[in-house]
Amino acid sequence: QVLLVESGGGLVQVGGSLRLSCTASGRTFSTKAMGWFRQAPGKEREFVGAISWSGERTNYADSVKGRFTISRDNAKNSVYVQMNSLKPEDTAVYYCAASRFGSPTYASGWSGVSSYDYWGQGTQVTVSS
Q1: What is the DSSP-derived secondary structure letter of residue 104?
Q2: I need a labelling partner for 26 at 20 to 30 A (CA). Which of 1, 34, 45, 119 fits?
Q3: Cβ–Cβ < 8 Å for 72, 79
Q4: Inter-CA distances, 107 with 47, 93, 100, 116, Å
Q5: Gap between the Cα atoms of 79 and 42, Å rounded
Q6: Which runs of consecutive H residues, i.e. helices, occur in the chain?
Q7: 110 by DSSP, 3-state: which?
Q8: Cα–Cα–Cα angle for 126, 3, 85, rounded to 5 degrees
Q9: What is the model's pLDDT at position 105?
Q10: Distance, CA of 107 to chain centre
Q11: Residue from 128, 129, 127, 124 nearest 38 by CA
């Protein structure tokens, strides 16, 4: 069992930055890839990005490439997403999730909702224009 708790959401102006954190309980955190997803009102949950268990590999949605950076600290059981150059369309509830894989080898292993076993409760990010 992995319990995930996100923090760091809030209200930010267009072009601003936020850093979200996700802290995990449990001993298996360091063996799992970790992902970030988001869900805007009336829309499906979408993949933002993910990082392998070691932190050596990352994968991002095209919509956030070059603006968002995911990192992790296994000693602190934590994963982060640094979000820069925020846009109104980034407004959503952001979720972290623990993968069933350590380092996915195919696209849906990174981005598919079904590849993730555990989810946090989400944190709201609102980008105002």
Answers
A1: -
A2: 45
A3: yes
A4: 11, 23, 14, 13
A5: 27
A6: 107-111
A7: helix
A8: 25
A9: 85
A10: 16
A11: 124
How many of the other CB atoms lie within 10 Å of CB of 124?
12
- Overall residue count recorded for the chain in this entry: 129
Give the count of beta carbons closer than 10 Å to the beta carbon of residue 13.
10
The pLDDT, as a whole number, for residue 106 is 83
Listed residue (57, 40, 42, 54) closest to 95, CA to CA: 40
Say which residue the tokens 């050596």 belong to: 56
Among 89, 91, 78, 85, which residue's Cα sits nearest to residue 120? 78
Mean pLDDT by 10 residues, the chain (129 residues): 94 98 92 96 96 96 98 97 98 97 86 94 97
Q: Are 60 and 52 in contact (CB under 8 A)?
A: no
Query: Which residue's entry shows tokens 């949950």?
Result: 45
Cα–Cα distance, 16 to 6 (Å, whole number): 20
Q: Residue 45: is it exposed, middle or buried by C-beta count within 10 angstroms (0-12/13-18/19+)?
A: middle
Phi, psi of 8 (to 5 degrees): 105, -5
